[in-house]
Amino acid sequence: MTLARRLCLPLAAAALAAGCTTTQVAPQTAPAMVPGVESQTPLYPPSGDIVMPTTPTVMPPATPAITPPRKVYLYTSQSEGRALLARLMPTGIADRKGWTEDILDAFTGLRLPYSPENFCAAIAVIEQESSWQADPSVPGLPRIVWGKIEEKADRYHLPMVAVKTALMKTSPNGRSYKERIDGLRTEKQMNALYEDMAAESGRLGLPAGKNPIRTGGPMQVSVEFAEGHAHAWPYPYSKRGSWRNEVFTRQGGLYFGIANLLHYPAPYTQMVYRFADFNAGRYSSRNAAFQAAVREITGRRLAYDGDLLSYQGAAPAGSETYGALSNASRRVGMSDDAILRDLKLEKSAIFGQSELYKKVFALADQAAGRRVAREAMPQIDLKSPKITRKLTTQWFAERVDGRYRRCLARQ
Hints:
Pfam families: DUF1615. This protein is mainly alpha-helical and about 400 residues long. The chain has helices spanning about 5-20, 80-90, 95-110, 115-130, 140-155, 160-165, 175-180, 185-205, 225-230, 245, 250-260, 270-280, 285-300, 320-325, 330, 335-345, 355-370, 395-410, and strands at about 215, 220, 310, 315. The chain has 3 domains: about 5-25 and about 140-210; about 35-55 and about 70-135 and about 220-270 and about 385-410, no CATH class; about 275-370, no CATH class. The chain is about 50% helix and about 0% strand. The strands form 2 sheets. The chain has a two-stranded antiparallel sheet with strand order 1-2. Strands 3-4 form a two-stranded antiparallel sheet. The longest helix is centred in the middle third of the chain and has 17 residues, at about 185-205. The protein is globular, with a radius of gyration of 23 Å. Mean pLDDT is about 80; it is low at about 1-5 and about 20-70.
């Protein structure tokens, strides 16, 4: 086999993954959030009023603001939870009973309260991400993948004829790699195809690299999140293969997706901000409000993206937010080292109790003459080969929030 032919398969494998992205956006290059003790705090429905920032680039949700009910209804037994969930589940979905049991089992395993708010939050995200398909299809997936393979081939000056000839090789399931690409419908199929292609690269003595297909399942949960959560909280099911494989099952995908959505304490007065966190990364809505507060006291224009630090690998680097605070360190009353120390807590609940958080919001309240918002919608544009129009985290959160409210009306 010529060198060009030998290179075709690993290059195609790398390009293959580029077509497998999701509208869920992790913090830009921040380290993965691995749940700790704080994740074990049960979620209770939020209460209180919301005050949105007055800065023009932070927009309030399009849906009308509501004051959540002061009284929280919790269902303590599994039978009560099952009956409530059955009332909230939409009609007309395939295997409705199976979905109901898997959702209930996830709540039980995570020790999350059975409540209309919690159940409807999960239901709304499932509807948005997969329309009740355990392995959701991606329209035009073969076209996306072939486009990425062609881009990769052009970069390495390989003719597509040679690439397609190499992909005519029979894969472990008996079909050629080309046939499998042409027949792609779901990310689960893409994941299996990549794994086979990577193994083939290894047999040829070429580097396979890390599987870059990052999300999957009915809630499009991150494989990296699933691996981290499984080390911090006992998995209630029998594990079949890798954590990656669990994410691509309905049971595992729902469990880890619900954990990502609800299995952490968040100081929000409306569920829409938790939906934004699901898309942009935990505590992004809290952090976006913090960035608005920093602007209030410094006058610096900042991106309200919820990322307080930039990262090079796992090491924190400079950021606009850090630069603005560093210039205002005397006013804040903290050294640069102390500011950086607290900013490193940005992906945890502890940041909300930090010295920096308290001082910045105290100064912002004073400068504004009122209590400024402690939550704001992250301003992030969503990028993906699957997205053909301008979408944002705010669009995602509001879309899910509309489904959430319709679900609550069913009880």
